[in-house]
Amino acid sequence: MSFIATPLSMHFEEPLPLQGGASIHHYDLAYETYGELNADGSNAVLVCHALNASHHVAGVYADQPKSEGWWDNMIGPGKAVDTNRFFVIGINNLGSCFGSTGPMHQNPDTGRVYGADFPVVTVEDWVDAQARLLDRLGIARLAAVLGGSLGGMQALCWSLRYPERVAHAVVVASAPNLNAENIAFNEVARRAIVTDPDFHGGNFYDHGVVPRRGLRIARMIGHITYLSDDVMNQKFGRQLRGGLDLKYSTQDIEFEIESYLRYQGDKFSDYFDANTYLLITRALDYFDPARAHAGNLTQALAASQAKYLLVSFTTDWRFAPARSREIVKSLLENRRRVSYAEIDAPHGHDAFLLDDPRYLGVMRSYFDSIAKDIA
């Protein structure tokens, strides 16, 4: 049974300097909290979200009984990250379309919607913004920072950018940077959006339209990369839609997998902002803590002070286990305390959101040990 979650928002007047040289001011961050902060503030856990997720990490909204948070199977009373013991914070990233200031909001300097003028943001910028919100909440140090996929990159970044503020970093189904193939997938998805006639250079808000065709294709591309070949074949195989006879058409839907992808694309285009998609995928591309150290990840991770748990999944070909092992190796070379679990799960990249008992068991055990440390 899920608990009731309450969406919150915090406003910031002061400018936030961004990695690209710009800054943003008069912005809002949407967030939610679960559980209670203990007397010495030592039980706070920050959860960082992935590309199309948000601050709504767990629970349901009182007026929306089917609005479960995206990691509700992981976080809540009695769950692996137990909100009876931890004070959990989810924060929506700047530039998102789920409550924090983003391209669809008004630029205070012009009075017009930001649109294409919203500044480029990076993982480092998100972490800096999150740190400001935690300052306002009176949280000086995190018991843990936790994230999967792009959220895992943020957790890793937290441990490097604010090493004295992080006791544990939990990095799930992630990587120290994107390889060329991942950047290529992101670029194809972006081109689908920017070449949509309804995109209007990113200022489609002024025209009262949405580049739905581009968003649909972008989501279809992404969804293919989140699933393993085994799961896709198991769920759909070569099943035909609506019968056994081929239509011999180049444009009709013939196979069940086509129907599924179109459904996912249609749903995504109804709620996700096109400029946000461009911003977040570019932030993924840019993340590379080793870049400032001539590509040497071991040197990049030398700043860390946290203890780490890394989790990967054998069939995740977008963020393959080898990428997690790169991080593990570099942390060990820095003599950091690292736990690593490689889960043999069939679900591909999406496994980090699912209910594999071995995965949930690893997470529960690790957070049990954190709880004992702060008790």
Shape: globular
Largest sheet: 8 strands, mixed
Would you count the extended β strands for me? 12
- The name of the CATH topology of the largest domain is Rossmann fold
Strand content: 5-15%
Number of helices: 10
Distance between the termini: 26 Å
Low-confidence stretches: none
SS-based class: alpha/beta
Helix content: 25-40%
Major sheet strand order: 1-4-8-5-9-10-11-12
Question: Could you name the CATH homologous superfamily of the largest domain?
Answer: Alpha/Beta hydrolase fold, catalytic domain
Our Rg estimate from Cα atoms comes to 21 Å
What is the CATH architecture descriptor of the largest domain? 3-Layer(aba) Sandwich
Name of the CATH class of the largest domain? Alpha Beta
Structure write-up:
- By secondary structure, the chain is α/β, with parallel strands linked by helices.
- It folds into 2 domains: 4-177 and 288-374, Rossmann fold (3-Layer(aba) Sandwich), CATH 3.40.50.1820; 182-281, Rna Polymerase Sigma Factor, Chain: A, CATH 1.10.1740.110.
- Helices cover 34% and strands 14% of the residues.
- The protein is built from 10 helices and 12 strands.
- It has an 8-stranded mixed beta sheet, with helices on both faces.
- A hairpin with a 5-residue loop joins strand 2 and strand 3 (23-24).
- The longest helix is centred in the C-terminal third of the chain and has 18 residues, at 357-374.
- The radius of gyration is 21 Å and the shape is globular.
- The two termini are 26 Å apart.
